[in-house]
Amino acid sequence: MQxxxxxxRALVSGATVLGVxxxxxxxxxxxxxxxxxxxxMPGHLIPVLFANPPQQGLRHYGKSYTVRPILFRGSSPQLxxxxxxxxxxFASAASxxxxxxxxxxxxxxxxxxxxxxxVPAWHxxxxxxxxxxxxxxxxxxxxxxxxxNAIGSASDTAMRALLLEHGLxxxxxxxxxxxxxxxMPSLLEKxxxxxxxxxxxxxxxxxxxxxxxxxxxxxxxxGASETVFLAARASYLRRNSAAVADFMEDWVRSRRWFMTPxxxxxxxxxxxxxxxxxxxxxxxxxxxQDYYRDPWSRPNIAGVQxxxxxxxEIGVLKEAITVAPAHxxxxxxxxxxxxxxxxx
Length: 344
What we know:
Elements: H1 8-12, E1 32-38, E2 65-71, H2 75-83, E3 89-92, H3 94-102, E4 108-117, E5 126-130, E6 145-148, H4 154-165, E7 175-178, H5 184-189, E8 195-198, H6 202-208, E9 212-217, H7 219-222, E10 225-233, H8 234-239, H9 241-259, H10 264-275, H11 301-313, H12 331-341
Parallel strand pairs: 1-2, 6-7, 6-8
Antiparallel strand pairs: 3-10, 4-10, 5-8, 5-9
Helix pairs in contact: 9-12
């Protein structure tokens, strides 16, 4: 696996029916180099899923495919890279998927779960304000500055939708300031913004100080949603179906390895080394303080559709799409589960 050298703070920031794979590889052909976009760790997990193939039980890495994770600020910049053929898979938000289909005219497909927000008893993205400040309710954000990671991202769409529900429109009633997730705690502390989404583990640390209060979270507008999912172009999936089938099998195997309680210490160790953080700061990962991840990587398709419909209703999206069946291909997951549970 290849990835650039990143600072500690930068690292935290933020189809086809498969019954038998139809694409065959030439004998001796080089492994398919798969470029995968990501935006946050440890949420997306993408940079570490293929970090230690033998330990994580991967069967095909280095044989039929390799992975190059590429860091972005959010899902919107990844969509631009997809349109420019600079990525093969990306960590997409619901609104980004819709924009990719309607504006960029890409044949995008939802292929796997990454993280789900607002699942009962699990974590939801949370926006903080200073406890000593004047902001007590959402309406108090009128005239204020709110940090967002990338226009059109999952968290950005949730924030805009919820504020609009309370009568507040961007550029008319409040100002958004784009920043990396890792910069937001400092911006909020210094008073350069009045409200910001704060990711774990900073969220827990900041709430413990008693200086901040949670104003709202994403579940307030979307309920349980598929916040970020893996997406790719249907044409790419068809063209490389054999290697993609191997990649998706290993993707599911690795995610399951990380989520297995018996592997918790080893999994946290891998993540901590990648992020250059002490393991103690990451003990919450894969617990109920963290996002929900489906054990078989099955995305919540209804949880993709709801944010799209809401974004369209409030004018964030000019045009909505119906995700299933045209823009969801779960056959690779079906094949992966079959390979894992019914090995030949």
